[in-house]
Amino acid sequence: MATRKSTKLRIPHSQDDCELVGILEQLSPEESTQGRKIALILHGTMGHKDYLFQKRLALRFPMDSFRFDFRGNHESGGQRTQGGFAKDVEDLVTVVSYLRNTYGYEIDVVVGHSRGSVVGMYWLCTSEEGQHARAMVNVSGRYRMHRIYDVAKTYKEQWDAKGYYERTVTVARQAVVERIYPQDLEEFSQWNTAIVWDKFPDQIDVLTMHGLVDKTVPTYDAVIYSRALGARTPGTHSLHLIEEADHNFTNRQDEVVDCILEWWDAVNQGGLKTGILMTGVRGKL
Q1: DSSP assignments along the chain, one per residue
Q2: Mean pLDDT of all residues in the chain?
Q3: 3-class SS shares of the chain: helix, strand, coil, % to 5
Q4: SS3 (DSSP) at 227
């Protein structure tokens, strides 16, 4: 009997120093992948492919999946910048092309956390492959990009003194030094999330999850996505807000995965309606 297989892939990029590293999870590795559906799982800012719920979801998802480090993150080459969303989209285009040309995979669902959600939704809006996907999971996704300036006061002293803000964060148990320049925030704030109102594919079912104590991205951004994506047909939009959950769903990773899998079952059963997820289900209140 075939068993699940995890394979590390190193995907060449158009830039020589920008090899992208990711993990391919296969449910039936001995079978042909030509025309097989696959899920993409995308991390957020200063994250990586095994960050938060990503690996847990990949190991439980009932479909082949691929999760990778965007350029300049963890094992992937190149440089990342705070405002470099266009380069993240380039990375995603490169990954999709590789999975299609090398394995014959077709993208069926995209799962993103925070920045990964923003990148994933933009790719769905602008790519030919996105027109054939069935589902999107938006976890902690930012809509109002200008709200990044809410943190600018934290950076001002170093900006005035050095021209950049420097911070050290831990990524995959390693200390990483990041420099943020004023132009990074300007570029970040100008990224076009409003594209989802007019360009998001009508057939895609969407789940938006957000923590009610998210101090990084305001919870109201989830409501805006609900408004933008809730009027499409035949695609649906399901909103799920989690009480006492922060931006990274600290200590709630299994709950996130459980929710995604429950929603995914409903996608496949065709039983979804636009609105609050689990409407009519009393559960534990």
Answers
A1: ----EEEEEEE--SSTT--EEEEEEESSTTS--TT-EEEEEE--TT--TTSTTHHHHHHH-SSEEEEEPPTTSTTS-S---TT-HHHHHHHHHHHHHHIIIII--EEEEEEEETHHHHHHHHHHHH-TGGGG--EEEEES----GGGGGGGHHHHHHHHHHHSSEEEEEEETTEEEEEEE-HHHHHHHHT---THHHHHS-TT-EEEEEEETT-SSS-THHHHHHHHHHTT-SS--EEEEEETT--TT-TT-HHHHHHHHHHHHHHHHHT---SEETTTT-----
A2: 94
A3: 35, 25, 40
A4: helix
Q: 241 and 139 in contact (C-beta within 8 Å)?
A: no
Give the type of residue at 77.
G
- Express each pLDDT in 96-125 by its tens digit: 999 999 999 999 999 999 999 999 999 999
**Is the Cβ–Cβ distance between 44 and 67 less than 8 Å?**
no
Q: Taking a C-beta distance cutoff of 8 angstroms, is the pair 121, 43 a contact?
A: no
Long-range contacts of 182-187 (CB under 8 A, 24+ apart): 183/83, 184/81, 184/82, 184/83, 185/82, 185/83, 185/148, 185/149, 185/152, 185/155, 186/83, 187/81, 187/82, 187/83, 187/84, 187/85
pLDDT in tens, 26-63: 999 999 999 999 999 999 998 999 999 999 999 999 99
